[in-house]
Amino acid sequence: MKATPLSNCERRFLLRAIEERKRLDGRQCYDYRNIRISFGPDYGCCIVELGNTRVLAQVSCELVPPKPNRPTEGILFFNLELSPMAAPGFEPGRQSDLLVKLNRLIERCLRNSKCIDTESLCVVASKKVWQIRLDLHLLNHDGNIIDAASIAGIVALCHFRRPDVSVQGEEVTVYTPEERDPVPLSIHHMPICVSFAFFQQGTYLLVDPSEREERVMDGVLVIAMNKHCEICTIQSSGGIMLVKDQVLRCSKITAVKVAEITELIQKALENEQKVRKEGGKFGFAESIPDQKITAFKMESAAVDTNNVEEQAEEIITKADPPSEVFAKPILHTPGTAQIGEGIENSWGDLEESDREAAAEEEGESEAIAFECQNMETEDTMKETKKDEPVVLSDSEEEEVILEPPEPPRRTRTQTNSKQGNTSKQAFNKRRKKKRAA
Questions:
Q1: CATH superfamily of 23-282
Q2: Which residues pair with 97 in a beta bridge?
Q3: Reduced 3-state DSSP string for 261-317
Q4: pLDDT tens track of the chain, all 437 residues?
Q5: Among residues 255, 209, 218, which one has the least CA distance to residue 239?
Q6: Backbone phi, psi, residue 130, to 5°
Q7: Where are the domains of the chain?
Q8: Helix, strand, coil % (nearest 5) of the chain?
Q9: Cα angle, residue 377 at apex, residues 371 and 378 outer, rounded to 5°
């Protein structure tokens, strides 16, 4: 399913607003959207929200043999997934050009910048090393995926804790979190990507473009930098040519934004560790408002269960009895009607005019019923057969039976006899003619 394209009117409106230094969400040209970080119940799981763009990050680890050319270094693996849940234009199971570009950029930002000490992941040289896997899932797409993914990736890596191990000879023992506290990763710095969108061949510049702004931009510049103002990677895409002054201006803006985002990440990590130690509400639970219905249990309240029967009897005796006890569930009140079989009429008292009208209606109904009864009797009399005798009884002793007179019937014997005589006469005439001949 392809994404819904922008109409010409929307495109002209967006470009005209950018020329006037205005944005649809009310931001200034160099403003970032609000960043929100929430951690999961396990180490290495977090969700980063950059405006309406949401990315879920999960870090996992396992012991594997090292690479032959690097026997004393651990292995880092990064994977970004764009699911149709985030936007209808993303197809499942297909590596689009955008996905390939984003994965390569994340690898250059996190692996090639050497932000993680890979030698600290070695357990036994040439035999066992830790493989760290970072999975990024785009939950909602509203523009600037790379910035949200880079922030989510570095936050998850900083929050992750690997199990502690011990080596005795060639035997490697991996301890559970209950036996030994997990060990955090050794991270030297935090590279963070900042994206710049250019319009009208680099004339206008916007920081953190939204999804609609990305559709009408001419090109984009991505700079990955840490808080020490060290550029980790830089990439430009699109059909624009940037001059040196534009790149220097973008790098200065990136230094300011990276310092703010790094401070925000450090505060979020400190607060999460503090709340986790105190045993309060941590993880995704802190992002759910208290007013909404959740699956969390209510706080238990102390209840005294001693002498329950005596307390119940006291409550019953102290309670006042009801003022009225209704034997029937139906309450008859004036001005209301009750519909049902066997229920009394509950209309209020009728006035004189209403009574007269009701009496007239009753008389008319009785007359109509009487006429209907007479008509039914006449119909039944008509339906009696003509051949049946009619019995008239004036008293119980004498009964007179009147039978209806039988109508005269024409028999077929007479007609048959006449036809027989004529046929005999004709036969005799023929016979006489034959003899005479």
A1: GHMP Kinase, N-terminal domain (3.30.230.70)
A2: none
A3: HHHHHHHHHHHHHHHHHHCCCCHHHHHCCCCCCCCCCCCCCCCCCCCHHHHHHHHHH
A4: 567 788 899 999 999 999 998 898 889 999 999 999 999 888 999 999 999 999 999 999 999 999 999 999 999 999 999 988 888 888 877 778 889 999 999 999 999 899 999 999 999 988 999 999 999 999 999 989 999 999 999 999 999 999 999 998 888 899 998 899 999 999 999 999 999 999 988 888 999 999 999 999 999 999 999 999 999 999 998 878 888 899 999 999 999 999 999 999 999 999 988 888 887 666 665 655 555 544 445 556 666 667 767 777 777 777 766 555 544 555 555 555 555 444 555 455 555 556 666 666 666 666 666 666 666 555 555 554 444 554 444 444 444 444 555 555 554 444 445 555 566 666 677 777 766 66
A5: 218
A6: -85, 135
A7: 23-282
A8: 35, 20, 40
A9: 90
- Concatenating the DSSP letter of every residue in 20-60 gives TT--TTS--TTPPPPEEEEE-SSTTEEEEEETTEEEEEEEE
